[in-house]
Amino acid sequence: MKAKKLRFAIIVAAIACIIPLSLFAACGERVTTEYEFVAPDGVTVAIFADMWDDDFETKEGIADMKYSVTAEANIAAQFTEGKEFIVAPVNVGANMHNAAKTGKNQHDYKLMNVTSWGVLYFVTTEEGFTTYDQCASPTEFLSQFDGKTVETIGLAAIPGKSAEYLFDQAGANVTLNGSDASTIQAEIARGDAVTAVFAEPAITALKNSGNEFEVLGSVSKIYKDVTDNDFPMAGLFVRSDVYDKNPALVAKVNERANESVTAFLNDVATVGAKAESIEGCSVKAAALQAAAPNMTVMYRNSADSKAAVKALLGNIGVQAADDLFLG
After folding, report:
1. Phi, psi of 149 (to 5 degrees)
2. Three-state DSSP class for residue 41
3. How far is the C-alpha of 37 from the C-alpha of 53, rounded, in Å?
4. If 0-12 CB within 10 Å is exposed, 13-18 middle and 19+ buried, where does residue 322 land?
5. Digit-coded pLDDT (tens) for 59-100
6. Chain centroid offset of residue 273 CA
7. Is the pLDDT of residue 203 over 60?
């Protein structure tokens, strides 16, 4: 009788060892699952550079994380393709979340954190403009653009939408033309007549190269003065089903994102050097280090960012329900 029980136990153990690992992590082996982390080219890559190439391990198994850089114009496509972790302007992520709720996007996403709180500035090569510091109020500053054309990066994202909101608040009739960063940078370098909403660290890089233009004012500072709210530009989104299946992994990525921001703030030279070495990243370490004082980078988790994000999205006409935010 004991021999039969022993044979039965051996058979059960043998069966367990041939069950696919995706169903049962047998015989001491861990399940490895591939994920992708995508960030748009620019300072956002530098913000997450300290964690770049990290993998993660939880009791559910090993998360093999692939990291990639894409052009900002391609960020919406990353949501459509279902990438698991995406750094994006908060309105782009919110729009994708809303699209999923109405069945227009296959994949749903939630906001994990916000890390970029202001890198935008009004710049000009033209005469006749007054800086924000020289104006008595936001309305005085914004009204001087009435009847003019202003170029902007990210016309349909935070830069363009926030500029449109600010001009509307001041009653300024401004034509906003969308342009990519490289085009604006080239126009300034050539000395073309251009007034634009542009971003760091490209602004500092142009200044350090001896190009002549004027920085008129910080978009985030003007927004803060108009609304009394902070200016949440971009953060990290996670695909909802990834969070549902493995919240421990999402918690670890969130924690590592916080550490990455701390590394950026404490040693931007080292982080900048790593960012410069990342394939597809155009940020230069020297420009990043010089521009760091002009960039508002800080980590706030989803709950702590919620009020500011909802306020900004409401101001630019994007619905932000509570289920956008990671619980």
Report:
1. -105, 130
2. coil
3. 10
4. exposed
5. 889 999 999 999 988 999 999 999 999 999 999 999 999 999
6. 20
7. yes
